[in-house]
Amino acid sequence: MRAIVLTLVLALGASALAQRPGQPLPAFELRDQDGVVLSNDDLLGQRWLLNVWASWCPPCRAELPLLAQAADDLADEGVGLLLLNAGETASVAAGFLAGEGLVLRTLVDPDERVRGLEPTNDVLRRLRTGGLPTTYFLDADGTLVSTFVGELTPDALAERLTAAFGISWTP
């Protein structure tokens, strides 16, 4: 039930004008599952796949191994992967990833509220994320190049990487 409610809240709360290519990534300051604070400024200088996910979301869970493979394959191409968890605590998100054998950095809500840091859902509202999963393709200066809503298939990811970054990738 929680999954359905949060998906509806995200979808209904999204602006008709979603985050568009050519726009900079909205400012954020969040913690990863290890408690390290990361901001959008830390992403500058490298191209990124920013994937919004949750452990209760079946399509999110299904695409994570593909994204992990792409991150490994594309590291030498200057493309990084960062996950942005939709409202789960560090222990929940990290526990899920560890249980799946995935070593992926994810931005999360802290297990205990940390003064001065916002919840991930506030960032999702600024991104105008309309559903889960959503993958944002960002260039090295933090500008949105492309967005894909829904589960990425190997072919869809390969096509987006070519269109967004000019990279030919075969899973």
Brief descriptors of the model:
single chain; about 170 residues; alpha/beta; Glutaredoxin; 5 helices; 7 strands; disordered N terminus
| Arithmetic mean pLDDT | 88
Give me the Rg, rounded: 15 Å
**Main sheet makeup:** 7 strands, mixed
Structural class designation: alpha/beta
Q: What proportion strand?
A: 15-25%
Shape: globular
Query: What strand line-up does the widest sheet have?
Result: 2-1-5-4-3-6-7
Distance between the termini: 34 Å
What count of structural domains?
1
The CATH topology is given as Glutaredoxin
- Along the chain, the helix and strand elements come as HEEEHEHEHEEH
**Tally of helical segments:** 5
CATH superfamily: Glutaredoxin
The first-level CATH class is given as: Alpha Beta
Helix content class: 25-40%
pLDDT < 50 stretches: 1-17
What is the number of beta strands?
7
CATH architecture: 3-Layer(aba) Sandwich
